[in-house]
Amino acid sequence: MRVKIMAQAIAISMLIVGQQARAAEAPAASEGSVVFNPLNISATAINPEQEALEKPGSTSSRGENIKLEPIDQIMRSMPGTYTQIDPGQGAVSVNIRGMSGFGRVNTMVDGVSQNYYGSAPSEVSHGSVPSSQFGALIDPNFIVGVDVTRGDEKGSAGINALAGSANFRTIGVDDVVFAGNSLGFRSKFSAGSNGTGRSGMMAIAGKTKAFSDSGSIGMMAAISSSSIESRYKNAEGTGSEKFGFGYNQSYKQNPKSQLVKLDIKLDDFHSFEFSGRRYENSFTKRDIESNDYYIKYHYSPYSELIDLNVIASSGHGNQKYMPGSLFTFTNTSTENKADAIDINNTSRFSLGTTDISFNYGGKLMRNQFEKHVESLIEDPKQNLESIENNTFAPAGNQRISSLYSALQLNHGIFQLNLGANYTSSNLTGYKPACDERVQCFPQGSSNISLEESGFNPSIMLSAFISPWFQPFASYAKTMRSPNPQEVFFSNDGGASMNPFLKGEKSDTYQLGFNSSANGLFFKEDALRFKAVYFRSKIKDYIASQSFLVCTGGRKCSMEEVISSDWTIDSDDYISNMHIYVNSATPVETSGFELEANYDAGFAYARLSFSHENTSQPTSIASGSFGAGDIGDLPEDFFNLDAGVRFLDKKLVFGSLVKFTGTNRKLSPDQEYNEKSGALEKVKNEKNPVIVDLYSNYQISKNLSVRLSVQNLMNKNYSEALNRLNSNPSQSSGESPANTARGRTYLVGAEFRM
Length: 753
Fold this sequence. Notes:
CATH architecture: Beta Barrel
Distance between the termini: 39 Å
Strand content: over 45%
Number of domains: 1
Helix content: under 10%
CATH topology: Maltoporin, Chain A
Shape: globular
């Protein structure tokens, strides 16, 4: 049914522009006339990382990983970009300038937004409830690049995106088949010590001419599998099983993935791409499955007014929990579904000496979160209460619709980018009845519907004054709708749900410049540099607070109870509700970010540096129930990647130097502020400088081998924004502090033909 709807949408889009484009297509040749083939002019291409550094605004990009580094390190190598690590999830959770989660960061795979919400059973959290967070289930073996935009993302990627976006690009037909060949095979393998395990991927693809002189058809199929150990040793030789929170056999995992892509180019005007991706894993006492599909259509006739793109996608994730993994629950499962369609067109034309590019379109998204829970409690009343009054996997439906546009004007040395989108959201779900002794609205059970809309403009002005100085300044208003996990959080059933929660809105200002130069020290060297200062003010920031039932059944915040004479209503009903609310005061973030790339052919260096000030409040649910943010970004962090090339650039030796400054994390002791009752943050000391070594030898066109030594100096340190650092087991004196892997060796190889 979904495929049928997608096909109909694409057909309608083709009809909309078909008549307009017909006149613009090449006319048929008359008898005796001469028809020339289109003239294609190409220049030396720059890689995505260099392109991002030359683009105005706060953008970064990384290519394919040949250093055997984990995906978290790749993301953290970009300024202002980080990841939240939960070893029990198996997903990538991107953090941009302190913001993370669905809606705060639009995390995409091949341009498709991901809404996976993982809940991993934990033996050390409150009541044995799971730790939960949003993320993307993507096999690192399939990733060939990632693009990040911070602060201001125009077009469909900016819909329901508060702080920016991250897009993971996966392997395709042209990544497997060598240019000029019709068949291709590609495989890679890696193995490591100290619990990193083994990983491998194989892909086969074919491509041939079809349909017309300029048409083609290509297909690729890839499989990937990994075996990741559950235990490792830190630099002091302490086994991770002694950290106090597990790292037992339930953390051992064997993720498996499959990816299929079909590329169809009918002629110079019409092209299609079909993709199906599957992910399977079993660990932390649950079975995980995820299936994602999309159809892309591109129509580009001989007209500068038409460049049509359509993408329709559907995703379905499922988590099934083993008996005994969730306290008194049994036969338990969760589902996340995501359906979307995005249609946009770009028109290019000139007015006098001004070149104009105008992109406009619309996007519809539907996100569903469902769960099935059965309780082992025999008493019918207590059975129902145990199902309604728990925090496990809040359910609800979210629909988001948007119209958007982006206008780019180039005049002389100046470029003006104007963007706008109008977004409307609707959130629905079920709220159980509240206890009669608590004031709620509605008091009884009800189906809740929240609606919200907003207009979000953006502007950026840049100038190419000289290669050394290309300044830009921008302003963007962004918003994101509340999630079902916030509105329908139910540690006290309907009493802890908030049917009046509003979405977050951010005003972000950025000021920066790009620089580029060639022939600085050597004839063919090149330097690209980007520096950005930003400041954001977020209104109605969403975080959970603690509430009690005061005299008369009124809900009183913990701060109000501490600072006044309000008393608990009765001794037989004492409830501590954790309710997601909007912050009364704006949350401000600011910082300075820079990134530089120098390449002289025989040697290269890349530097990224971030100085971040983030002040978002903590959520009670993050500490008590493992939901939400883990901590603040480090105040300072930088990465230096430098190396040399030998044997006509076939042999590469390089090193990664990483520094992470102090940051604040949730208190493992679950300490609360004496005045406000808010969960406290404690200082997490800065890490020592960590050095990794790597090498890559391209033996031939078909074979390359790789070697990496991570944590070369065998330093003992704790990773920032790692959930396990804030678990109660990390309280002083209870167990050794959770620290990262000690010295680790990895070897890998890649074969193509």
